[in-house]
Write a structure and sequence with these properties.
Layout: H1 4-7, H2 12-20, H3 24-47, H4 52-71, H5 75-91, H6 97-117, H7 127-146, H8 169-173, H9 177-209, H10 232-236, H11 241-247, H12 250-261, H13 270-285, H14 289-313, H15 316-322, H16 327-352, H17 355-364, H18 368-373, H19 376-386
């Protein structure tokens, strides 16, 4: 199904997008985010406290209108998915078949959509909100089966157009390796901020609506972080890849932990469960090879990180050395550079998507991430022998 809006003759939005060098789809998406403010404020001052059905109808109609504004007749994909899932949940009430059918159907529908619409770039099409809808409806099905209510009202995933690649392979090859690493670190951080900036805008809309209310803190101050998707302080201060996972895309991480990771306990192995989660996330994102390489790198990176930390922590001599004057600051700086550069390395396939693009970038960095993380189990015995558990003695 083609997007009727994008197929029409150029209008005001198309001309405006062209004048600023953006795609029409990206501009429509940005406008839609800002439209959230008048929508929620209108609800707050005219409908809040009224009959629930009237409020539900208001949000349903405004949501469908924004969807149509962005994707035209492709809005039918959303409607069809919701209706079918509703019927499934009615038919299979209190049955384990319900969540299985819903997850299978929504994932299959999403993957077929990816296959039918995918290009070599990041696409702002109906599949983008569909991937969020897949998680929301699947989570609802699991919650109904478990006898609980949904705890996350709404969250946003990847809704901005692909960031233009700042580094061109041939230009990179002309730079020194150190300079290339600096470019990779800066580019990777900017690539993450394209998501963060949109999440913060959407969170502002949600705060204005009041749905982010999250009780009060110990001092009695009201908390409005119920839909926060990024911990900026932790994100900017990160010195470990585990910090990135804790700080970035919090809602999706919570979802996969609750509905995927915990249900893979039957595997009897934590790493297999983590691998299952990352495979699910890669499939959920789409069919591009870059997604699978990105999450594979996360998997092998975290294995090494989690193994190496206790080895260092059990060696008192190493810890004592790191506590010497100035060493703490140098260690922080080294780890900061490490995470920035290698996060850029991991983000390259996620952003570039196509094999021939991200492969060339990794090749220009001599596959340093693969070489560092993949053979960890081979050289871990050497590291453990060099750093045996022992206390520091004066």
């Amino acid at each position: 199904m083609e997007d009727s809006i994008s197929m029409s003759s150029p209008g005001l939005i198309a001309k405006l997008a062209s004048s600023v060098g953006a795609s029409e789809a990206a501009l429509r998406l940005l406008i839609s985010i800002f439209l959230g403010f008048p929508i929620v404020l209108t609800h707050r001052y005219t409908l809040f406290g009224k009959l629930p059905n009237i409020q539900h109808l208001y949000f349903a109609l405004t949501g469908l209108a924004i969807n149509y504004f962005n994707y035209g007749s492709d809005i039918l994909h959303t409607v069809v998915t919701v209706v079918i899932v509703y019927i499934v949940l009615l038919v299979f009430q209190n049955s384990y078949r319900g969540p299985i059918i819903v997850l299978s159907f929504t994932m299959a529908y999403l993957l077929i959509g990816y296959y039918m619409t995918a290009t070599d770039t990041y696409d702002i099409k109906w599949t983008m909100p569909q991937c969020v809808l897949t998680l929301r409806l699947s989570g609802l099905a699991f919650d109904l089966y478990d006898g609980t209510l949904p705890t996350i009202l709404y969250f946003v995933r990847e809704i901005v157009e692909e960031l233009k690649m700042l580094m061109i392979l041939f230009d990179l090859q002309e730079l020194s390796f150190i300079t290339r690493c600096a470019v990779l670190a800066i580019w990777g951080h900017l690539a993450l901020y394209k998501y963060i900036s949109v999440w913060l805008l959407v969170e502002a809309v949600c705060i204005a609506s009041g749905i982010t209310y999250n009780g009060k803190d110990d001092k009695g101050n009201t908390k409005w972080n119920g839909l926060s998707n990024i911990n900026l302080i932790l994100f900017e201060g990160t010195t470990l890849f585990g910090h990135y996972i804790e700080a970035f895309n919090i809602n999706t991480n919570h979802w996969v932990a609750q509905y995927i990771y915990k249900r893979l306990k039957f595997l009897g192995n934590r790493q297999l469960s983590q691998l299952g989660v990352l495979v699910f996330l890669a499939v959920w994102h789409g069919l591009h090879s870059g997604y699978y390489m990105c999450f594979f790198l996360e998997f092998i990176c975290m294995i090494m990180e989690k193994d190496l930390q206790p080895i260092l922590q059990r060696n008192g001599v190493v810890l004592e050395f790191l506590r010497k004057p100035g060493m703490k600051q140098l260690t922080w700086l080294a780890l900061k550079v490490y995470t920035l550069v290698f996060m850029g390395y991991c983000m390259a396939p996620f952003v570039l998507l196509s094999y021939h693009k991200w492969w060339q970038v990794h090749k220009s960095f001599y596959f340093m991430g693969h070489i560092l993380w993949m053979p960890w189990y081979l050289y871990r015995p050497i590291v453990k022998k060099l750093l045996p558990p022992k206390e520091h003695t004066s």
